[in-house]
Amino acid sequence: MKMLYTILILTLTAGSVLGQSCCSGGAPLSGNLGLPMVDGRQVQFSISYDLNKLNTLKSGTETLDDNTRTRTTHTALFQAGYNIDKHWSFEILLPYVQQEREVSPLGLGSTVEITNGIGDIVFLSKYRFLNHFQAGLGVKFPTGSSDETTSRGILLNADMQPGSGAWDGIAFFTSEHQLKSRNSLSVYSTWTYRFTGKNNSYLIDQVYEFGNEAQVQVGVADQFLIFNQLIGPSLSFKYRNVSADINDGFDVPSTGGSWLFIKPGLSYLITPTINLVTTLDLPLYANLEGTQVTPTFRWNTALLFNLKLR
């Protein structure tokens, strides 16, 4: 009887885990690409921390009254860029990600899984034209681990791995315009598209491919002098669409969807070369395929360094 009860618990737990696939977890790569456009030969780098809390369970557009599944992603990101001249620049993004998943099925006690490690590195080459526009192409390398296991030695699903195990292509475009009536006020937009590749050794002998991802962000930013300190508030809207994951040629249930976020932000110019920037992502709308945990909020704070070269 005891053995039967144990098997029942493990079966229920496994079912909850498998039904929790989510394309909002993982290292936030696409949304952090694109260092600010600058003139001349300059070196830029940033150190940032990204917290993604996924405590909301949704089916389609409906929010479910269910707190048995939660996800938290902590990501430390190092980003470095070099502007060769006014037009050409490149940047590299290195993430370190820790993912935490807690499942509490039917009040039988919680199961917590934690993975951490270096994620997939992204390289992006950009070209600036007409002074206000920038386009780029990049590649994501499969540097992160994709074969992490549970405490019982069972291979974890793809959404809990630090890396995807696949090469991805990235397209990038951004624009920024200062208003003539107020030079400190800028209107900006960013578009990224990630063409995902295949992990040919997922769960040893399966082929897994995350869904292609598109993000569009538009916003405004301004600067004010407050007590001799330069403060920059911003407000933007971000739309994100992800197609369903594919495993061995079939769509993976409960993956893919569309999200709309509002993003208030604030920057503080510590010195002429060091800027502190913090943003908050708050969901306004989500339409998900199947049932998934989805972001409740996301918080990012970064130190941006800018060094001009002679």
Protein model, in words:
The protein has 310 residues and is mainly β. 5% of the residues lie in helices and 59% in strands. The protein contains 1 helix and 21 strands. The strands form 3 sheets. A 12-stranded antiparallel barrel has the order 1-4-5-7-8-9-10-13-15-18-19-21. The N and C termini lie far apart (77 Å).
Write a short abstract of this structure.
With about 300 residues, the chain is mainly beta. It has one helix at about 1-20, and strands spanning about 40-55, 55-60, 60-65, 70-85, 90-105, 110-120, 120-130, 135-140, 170-180, 180-195, 200, 205-210, 215-220, 225, 230-240, 245, 250, 255-270, 275-290, 290-295, 295-310.
Write down how many β-strands occur, each being a DSSP E stretch of 2 or more residues.
21
Largest sheet, order of strands side by side?
1-4-5-7-8-9-10-13-15-18-19-21
Largest sheet: 12 strands, antiparallel, barrel
Give average pLDDT, whole number: 89
Strand content: over 45%
Q: Radius of gyration, Cα only, in angstroms?
A: 21 Å
**N→C terminal distance:** 77 Å
Shape: globular
**Uncertain regions spanning at least 5 consecutive residues:** 1-21
Order of helices and strands: HEEEEEEEEEEEEEEEEEEEEE
Supply the helix-strand structural class. Answer: mainly beta
Q: What is the count of DSSP helices, taking H or I runs of 4+ residues?
A: 1
